[in-house]
Amino acid sequence: MAALLIPRRNRGMRTRLGCLSHKSDSYNDFTAILPDKPNRALKRLSREEATRWADSFDVLLSHKYGLAAFRAFLKTEFSEENLEFWLACEDFKKTRSAAKLASKAQRIFEEFIDVQAPREVNIDFQTRELTRRNVQEPSLSCFDQAQGKVHSLMEKDSYPRFLRSKIYTDLLSQTQRRLS
């Protein structure tokens, strides 16, 4: 009797795990991804602006709504920590207080770089160790190598998938429909 229950339990577990791992990038309601006053934001986003996001990864990152759409896409892929780390580094570079520099560096390291960090980014051992040493005597450039690796990973891996995603194509369709 017990032998008959095991396969049934395994099938149920597989189904549940399958549902958890299924990635959906379908967004019919863009209010979830656009910052501040989403309906007005979507109306202000032109087709040309959204189309320019495909010109380069940096153009996408420099646009407020492009950044929001890309963040929403990364969430569907369970990899938003890459963008969050990149943004934390950009913010870190604006730090002017030496006292704040050390505490911010430590927080970023513990949150994104350290082994088993809550939002650990995927970087190689050498980069992780170099960053660990850099954080001991932090400077505005102590995360540059790690940030560059994460930027490159997003640009080569996530960005092309974003451009093919339903999130982006639906957003382009919505901006096109407004013109009609």
Automatic annotation (TrEMBL):
Q: Where in the cell is it found?
A: Cell membrane; Cell projection, Dendrite; Nucleus; Perikaryon
Name-wise, this protein is Regulator of G-protein signaling 8
Higher taxonomy: Eukaryota, Metazoa, Chordata, Craniata, Vertebrata
Tell me the SUPFAM superfamilies matching this sequence.
Answer: Regulator of G-protein signaling, RGS (SSF48097)
- Which species is this record about? Oriolus oriolus
PANTHER family reported for this sequence: REGULATOR OF G PROTEIN SIGNALING, REGULATOR OF G-PROTEIN SIGNALING 8
Q: In its UniProt record, which GO terms are filed under biological process? A: negative regulation of signal transduction
Task: Give residue ranges for domain RGS.
Answer: 56-172
Where does this chain mainly localize? membrane
Topology class, membrane: Peripheral membrane protein
Keywords for this protein: Cell membrane, Cell projection, Membrane, Nucleus, Signal transduction inhibitor
* SMART domains, alphabetized: RGS
**What's any one GO cellular component for it?**
perikaryon
- The organism's superkingdom is given as Eukaryota
Q: Which InterPro entries match?
A: RGS, RGS_RGS8, RGS_sf, RGS_subdom1/3, RGS_subdomain_2
